[in-house]
Amino acid sequence: MPRRGAGFTLLETALAMVILGVGVLAMVEAQASFIQSNLWSSHAASGNFLAQELREYTRNLPRHDPVRGLSEDVSFVFGPEPGEVTIDDFDDLDDLDGMRFGFGGDMPGPINALGEVIPEISIDGTISYDSNGDPEPMKGWAQTVIVEKIEPFDSSWVRNDEYGREFEEDGLPPLGLESFPLRVTVVVTYTPSNGEELEMARVSWIAP
């Protein structure tokens, strides 16, 4: 009886190809998962950086306008005062309420601790410029600011912007319009090319 020649049969070859294909597919999926995880980590770090930069920007700002203060007229409470249209005009914390710096926002941005727009930097380390010769801001990123008036001994109790107490109320002492601490929250979002906005960081602190 003749002996079978050395080598692989068609069935053995097909089985080997299947095993090899499954292994390669698993490696590709693992690599894609790693890239996605790494990208998310990078974006999360960028989001935290942008939140902290805005916090640093507000560090030396008073709670309310240092000249005019707050007005009992509700149209002149939190938010920019009339005539304040650029980042250089903002001189107190409540000016920032509702402001969005960056993608889809009221102001160019995001901004750094000096109030400067952070430019988009390409992989090769160069800065992109627009048709006017100005640096293009970081693409897809935005910083949204929320400023809330809170009770001094209960930060979960949010008051209306125009709220103040001339007399004792519910056991709470009198407190003027400008005497309440403020809670500042910065929400950093990233909007990729598919248009789905993602929250990457949220930082809150209290200005006593």
How do the helices and strands follow one another from N- to C-terminus?
Answer: HEEEEE
User: Terminal Cα separation, in Å?
Assistant: 98 Å
Low-confidence stretches: none
Major sheet: 5 strands, antiparallel
Q: How many strands in all?
A: 5
**Form type:** elongated
Given the helix and strand composition, which structural class is it?
Answer: alpha+beta
Beta percentage is: 15-25%
**Average residue pLDDT:** 85
Brief description of this entry?
The chain is an alpha+beta fold and 208 residues long. It has one helix and five strands. The chain has one domain (10-207).
Structure, explained:
- By secondary structure, the chain is α+β, with helices and mostly antiparallel strands.
- It has one domain (10-207).
- The protein contains one helix and five strands.
- The radius of gyration is 28 Å and the shape is elongated.
